[in-house]
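Dear colleague,

Thank you for sharing your sequence with our group. We've completed the structure prediction you requested, and as agreed, I am returning the results in plain text so they can be pasted directly into your records. Please verify that the sequence below matches your submission; if there's any discrepancy, let me know and we will rerun it promptly.
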Amino acid sequence: MAEIRKQYHSLDLAKFISAVLIIVLHTGPLSSYSSVLHYGLRNIVTVVAVPFFFMASGFLLFVKLNRLPAEEGSAYFKRYIGRLVLMYVLWSAVYFPFVLTDWLRNGCTVMDVLQYIKRFFFEGSYETIWFLPALITASALVYFVHKRLSFRNIVLVALPFYIFACLGSSYYGLTEQIPVLRAVFHAYFSFFDTIKNGVLFGFLFVALGAAFTESRKPVRQGRAFLFSAVFFVLMAGETVAQTVLHWSTNGVDTKLLLAPLSICLFAWVLSLQLPDTHPEAYVWIRKLSLLMFLSQRIFLTLFDRYLSDSVWVTNSLLYFVSIFALTLAFSALFILLSQKLKVLRRFY
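Please find the predicted structure tokens below.
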């Protein structure tokens, strides 16, 4: 695995930047200073981060699988899914005290427990770590469908699911005006709380990442950057239109143009050739990015519950700096401790 990852230092760096963008997404560092800048940062810039994590995961997984004989690939995939399942269980255990605290504070019914079990299996046991079960589901879908279809055809299969996700979130204001679609989504949301899962969201982006492993032509860096800029502007226009027309009534994290933008950005990142003089630094960056992604909700929850009226939260920039610093320090310390306590490595 190390041999493969060594060729893609740009992915490691981009994933770290994405982890920071996710903290930006959750803290809104400019909200105290400029509503316009906050809107652009929150609704346009940061939304590329989670799709990038899915695409990078899909790309690296299937780069590895494509190089292995069938039997070895099957065994590797089972270990990969098993590792993700264990990570999800461990992180769910980390966040369960927050759930338990809510139950003790507000009272707990049988329905609350059943809702938690439902979320655990279908949506994510806690905010932010929904990424793990979504990645498990999406990776499994791409892996098994690939036995019949090429990755590029899988993208076509996954695209309607993502369009459905867009209609249930950033276009929900429009969807509700169409009786048939309104009935469909009311039925969907009567059971599920969100469209953020491996089928509707992760499937497409893991498939897109895997599709890059089929490419035989080198990516032209300048062209990839240019198309990234074009689609970024177009997606910004889509976002503004959604707001002006009051369509984005159920979330802003999905956009129709987010998919082509993600393709171009990923192609551009892959085209970057970063120096290999300190490979150990990229190993650290790789580990930090995932740990920061998964652990940030610890500090977000603590701040929002116990410091919500303090300057640490009411000042948006201070809020971001605090959460970022604590998450980075926690993740770095976690990596250092895992060098002595190997069991901690199972968290990332």
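Summary note from our side: The CA atoms of residues 8 and 63 lie 11 Å apart.

Kind regards,
the structure core
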